[in-house]
Amino acid sequence: xxxxxxxxxxxxxxxxxxxxxxxxxxxxxxxxxxxxxxxxxxxxxxxxxxxxxxxxxxxxxxxxxxxxxxxxxxxxxxxxxxxxxxxxxxxxxxxxxxxxxxxxxxxxxxxxxxxxxxxxxxxxxxxxxxxxxxxxxxxxxxxxxxxxxxxxxxxxxxxxxxxxxxxxxxxxxxxxxxxxxxxxxxxxxxxxxxxxxxxxxxxxxxxxxxxxxxxxxxxxxxxxxxxxxxxxxxxxxxxxxxxxxxxxxxxxxxxxxxxxxxxxxxxxxxxxxxxxxxxxxxxxxxxxxxxxxxxxxxxxxxxxxxxxxxxxxxxxxxxxxxxxxxxxxxxxxxxxxxxxxxxxxxxxxxxxxxxxxxxxxxxxxxxxxxxxxxxxxxxxxxxxxxxxxxxx
Length: 392
Fold this sequence. Notes:
TIM Barrel; 17 helices; 42% helix
């Protein structure tokens, strides 16, 4: 049975090896989207596989590199297959040209082709919002996702973008990309106004993902603490596999340290980003060894619990997963009322039953307390490091 879903984008990322009619049909029957990642190959060479799999725009989106976006052959591929939704990850440290070149190309392809810039850099996000008002679709990568990410977690990043769009008077379809692994978390973003959720890896242990037994066993043993952020000192954060003993990550951090001088320039950031790009291995094609550099998000650590909760059949698991998202969203209004009508909030004289925790050097500023109060919570001033004269 083909389901009609309420949300426009609930998507799962697949490798090009998984471009099959089974994956496409599972997406079609569950009303999910299959995002086929073509960044590791020439997209023009994949037309035959997409046509054979009966890929269509209603079901399939394509992820391509920024350079492939500029290749005229990409338009031929889209015309031949009928697919008209693209996802393009834009990270300033990896781009050969100014980001505006790629954003302009997206606008040139519109409205026939819908393009989602997949972004994590705050400066670039600000530029998209204020300099490219015709860009109305945006995918956000928080720090929990795989590979090059934001320095901010997804919750903080989404709220910052939501407020900036509001202040700019902009309408934009914002979807999250990676970092979410439960229907409850997905529902939280959708209830807060997100236009969709893209899952990178939570489905990796379902049956339509082409994996050997060894890889499945290693993925099943992943834990959230088995990923780590590096590159923060260069302002190029990247989340990688690291159980704490990765030689590849240690060498990368040593390299990052060698680039940190009195002033960090774009040149150092590019050196670092390209070093990762050249050494990175697809986790699904790896041995999860200490010497491999693997872009890996926290989401992958929930792949085992995903199949345990929803089943190993890809179609069945995705169908149940999305049904749980819908159910959680239907309860969101009651959950909100439980907070706003809380007896605790009424006793405190606040809108919500939240008490902001105190922390010296951060919450000892009256202006910060005012912001917390304006947001509906009870502020707390940290006074422990203040002397008597200042307190008085």
